[in-house]
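4.2 Preliminary Data

To establish feasibility before requesting continued support, the project team ran the inverse folding procedure on a target of 210 residues. The structure was first converted into the token representation described in Section 3, and no sequence information of any kind was made available to the design step. The complete token record follows.
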């Protein structure tokens, strides 16, 4: 398939690119700084774009079969709308170019999965460190759910740099109120690539943990 990956220079984005290429897909990586992506392959195209600039999204979204968003940033302590505004621009670009399949990575602990990232995140990390970030992720999810795309939202537990596993827990009800459940970025990438054409979680937000 022809896959557009947003946020390709992040750790999860790199795993998506690496595993997508290994699976034989043609990958277009949408990045702000191409120099940060240290991957080269005959089936990889790197496009310099900014999700906050709609005019930069026109060409990359053309002729794609699916779009995967691993969009993120590190501006945790200030009010931000980068994720929600950037995602809306991507939705608009997809609709313009008739690309329907969209998979977006967010996190457990958002919207109806609130409190499911464990008590440490619920009482400390989210309210004191990630409050604005998670607020924007919540808006991001709602924009996706209101769109006319064939969407799946993937909510991982705490992300790690561990090895890829091909067996893990995934459902609309995973997570834990007390303990923080984890999952490797490599495993998240594996799950997403296995579910691009699957109807199991179409129009659903699915949690994934070890």
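Position-by-position output of the design step:
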């Amino acid at each position: 398939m022809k896959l557009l990956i947003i946020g390709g220079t992040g750790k999860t984005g790199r795993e998506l690119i690496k595993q997508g290429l290994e699976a034989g897909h043609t990958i277009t990586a949408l990045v702000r700084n191409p120099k940060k992506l240290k991957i080269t392959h005959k089936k990889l195209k790197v496009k310099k774009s900014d999700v906050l600039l709609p005019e930069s999204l026109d060409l990359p979204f053309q002729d794609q079969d699916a779009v995967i968003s691993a969009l993120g940033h590190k501006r945790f302590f200030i009010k931000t709308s980068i994720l929600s505004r950037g995602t809306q621009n991507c939705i608009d670009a997809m609709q313009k170019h008739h690309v329907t399949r969209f998979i977006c990575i967010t996190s457990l602990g958002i919207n109806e999965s609130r409190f499911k990232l464990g008590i440490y995140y619920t009482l400390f990390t989210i309210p004191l460190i990630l409050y604005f970030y998670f607020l924007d992720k919540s808006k991001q999810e709602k924009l996706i759910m209101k769109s006319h795309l064939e969407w799946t939202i993937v909510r991982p537990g705490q992300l790690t740099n561990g090895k890829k596993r091909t067996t893990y827990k995934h459902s609309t009800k995973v997570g834990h109120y007390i303990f923080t459940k984890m999952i490797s970025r490599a495993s998240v990438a594996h799950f997403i690539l296995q579910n691009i054409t699957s109807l199991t979680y179409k129009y659903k937000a699915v949690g994934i943990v070890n």
